[in-house]
Write a structure and sequence with these properties.
Layout: H1 6-16, H2 23-31, E1 35-41, E2 44-54, E3 57-65, H3 74-88, E4 93-99, H4 103-111, E5 115-126, E6 129-139
Parallel strand pairs: 3-4
Antiparallel strand pairs: 1-2, 2-3, 4-6, 5-6
């Protein structure tokens, strides 16, 4: 992901989420040198992943797929790609937060070996006010190479 991609990435964000990340937040992630990757189909950006890495852990901050492309394995592939990059950057653990009402994402993360380690009360805004976040973690030490499907 580069600055040139931010308009398209922000469009995917706003299509996929009621409260999307702003273009400024996305830009700040680039400036902070977070790991920022895109998923493109026929030269169109259909998803993205953003992750920070440091002190032996990686934090998946954003994993987003355009609604038209959800359910086709793109999010799983992006997740696996980010986790492999975390391993490549010597991370032992991966963490992320997910809205408790996002059952599809929770299912994906659990299928990929994440376990619940905590709850953040009122962490996310949603249409009804606020929603809690489940904090998930995955040990990367025993993980081999990730297979992208």
């Amino acid at each position: 992901m580069t600055e040139i991609d931010l308009h398209a990435v922000a469009t995917v964000e706003s299509t996929a989420h009621i409260y999307p990340w702003s273009r400024k937040i996305l830009q700040d992630c680039l400036r902070a040198n977070y790991i920022c990757w895109l998923w493109q189909v026929d030269c169109h950006i259909v998803g993205h992943g953003i992750m920070s890495v440091g002190a032996g852990e990686c934090n998946i901050l954003n994993l987003c797929t355009h609604p038209s492309w959800q359910g086709q394995g793109l999010g799983r592939n992006m997740l696996r790609h980010l986790l492999q990059l975390g391993i490549d950057h010597h991370a032992d653990m991966a963490f992320l937060e997910v809205m408790v009402s996002n059952t599809n994402a929770i299912t994906l993360y659990r299928q990929e070996g994440f376990n619940e380690v905590g709850i953040r009360r009122g962490y996310y805004q949603n249409a009804n006010g606020q929603d809690d976040a489940i904090v998930l973690a995955k040990n990367l030490l025993s993980t081999g190479k990730f297979v992208i499907i």
